[in-house]
Design a protein that fits this description.
Strand content: under 5%
Distance between the termini: 61 Å
Low-confidence stretches: 4-22
Number of helices: 9
Shape: globular
Amino acid sequence: MFSPGRLLTLGAFALLIYMGFYAVPGHAPQPADFDPEAVARHEAAIWQSVTARSEFATAISCILYQRELHRMSWFRAVESGMALSQAVGQFWLMTGRYDRAAPRFEQVAGVERAWKAAAFDPMVVARHQVTWMALVRDTKRGDGTSQAVGEMSEEMGLRFGLPAVAAMDAAANRAPALHVAFSRGTAADWDQVALQLTHAYTSLQVSLARAAGASAGR
């Protein structure tokens, strides 16, 4: 039998673990509170790990990416990050009919919607995401096709509650960066990929901050 003192210690330890697992990064985090450089670094690491076929590293990077970008608790970050890891791994192994990966991306979007209490349709978000990923991966189309950027801006706009046009600049930076990752694989300059992704997420952060400011001023 445990002594009362030991039970109290174990209870306090369990409470700390619980609070840490469910804690969100920062106090009352807002959509624009993420660190663009950290998000970019995590996304570059996701694709670096995927191309190297490292499932564990992919999972860790997906969890960190979800937590930082969406300001999630560790519990939700693990839930959505593991689903994202499976989704990108499945996508990378495909050579066509990429729509088969949509259900896993829909699962990720569903967790995000529940976390944010948002109103977007996860199926629609997943469909846009798989479409732009397929276009960006298609090296014959080049790295900056208007269709890929358009699909990405629609997806990001829905995810973050922005008009698609407000996410256009972010998409215009993100699509070429991911094209490099997809087309060059392990030979990609990952520092350069991360740098361009930083520009993309900085633009997204600016758009989110503007939208929040406009909403507060009403």
